[in-house]
Design a protein that fits this description.
The protein is an alpha+beta fold and about 240 residues long. It is about 35% helix and about 20% strand.
């Protein structure tokens, strides 16, 4: 039996039968994979907390020849214990939103360790920030486009941003253009690094506007993208 071991970040989990879960993960070694976790809900134990959204877990499983078949987890345990992500009401709402968005945009693919490490380190930084973390999801999502292949061309110059072509310009070159004031906000966001920020850089209305801009940018550049259901919750949270 070809037993494999890897770290994985949980994207989603749904109940399967009476005692099991189907768990969708982004793994360090194998990219996106779906697993069956058996015996999660039993009279003796309840281990569903292992599979909370964006938890990092250590897993082992037998690799199947048919890559599209669900794989049974042989073992799973928490790889890193978060201190705040699932307990702070604002952070947990952001976690839920990010996990849903990642589930929508990450497709079946081979491993991408740089992407995995980005997810891993960003979540740890988010967990450790005690305050001034309201901009995290904005910085996280715009920097994530580095790994998805559509990071804005910051070498280009202009007072408008072309969402369709991903560059700054002074002319209205497509139907998906940001206004000048929206472009100013985007430029500011592109300069931020979450771990270095000592304060929140945007007010509530700016944050809501930037989130709509980023979601639209993802919608344009990602096949079959739909707005996350949790987007409304996030807007309500920051309004």
């Amino acid at each position: 039996m070809n037993i494999q071991e890897t770290k994985a970040i949980v994207l989603s989990s749904i109940k399967y039968g009476d005692t099991s879960l189907i768990v969708r993960c982004y793994t360090q070694k194998f990219g996106l994979k779906s697993f069956i976790a058996k015996g999660v809900f039993t009279k003796k134990k309840r281990t569903s907390s292992i599979y909370y959204p964006l938890n990092e877990i250590d897993i082992s499983f037998a690799l199947k020849i048919n890559e599209h078949q669900l794989i049974f987890l042989k073992s799973s345990q928490i790889a890193h214990y978060y201190e705040t992500l699932h307990f702070h009401p604002v952070k947990s709402a952001i976690v839920f939103f990010i996990s849903e968005l990642l589930s929508l945009i990450l497709k079946e693919e081979s491993d991408n360790e740089l992407l995995y490490f980005y997810l891993q380190h960003s979540l740890k930084e988010f967990d450790q920030k005690q305050d001034n973390f309201a901009d995290f999801h904005l910085i996280f999502l715009i920097q994530l486009t580095h790994f998805l292949g559509f990071y804005p061309n910051i070498e280009s110059e202009g007072t408008l941003f072309d969402l369709e072509n991903g560059f700054f310009t002074n002319s209205s070159s497509s139907i998906n253009m940001l206004k000048a004031d929206e472009t100013v906000l985007l430029k500011k966001l592109l300069e931020l690094h979450f771990i270095d920020e000592k304060k929140n850089n945007f007010n509530q209305s700016q944050r809501a506007l930037l989130l709509e801009i980023i979601v639209k940018y993802y919608q344009i550049h990602t096949n079959n993208f739909k707005k996350p259901n949790s987007l409304l919750i996030l807007h309500q949270l920051f309004s």
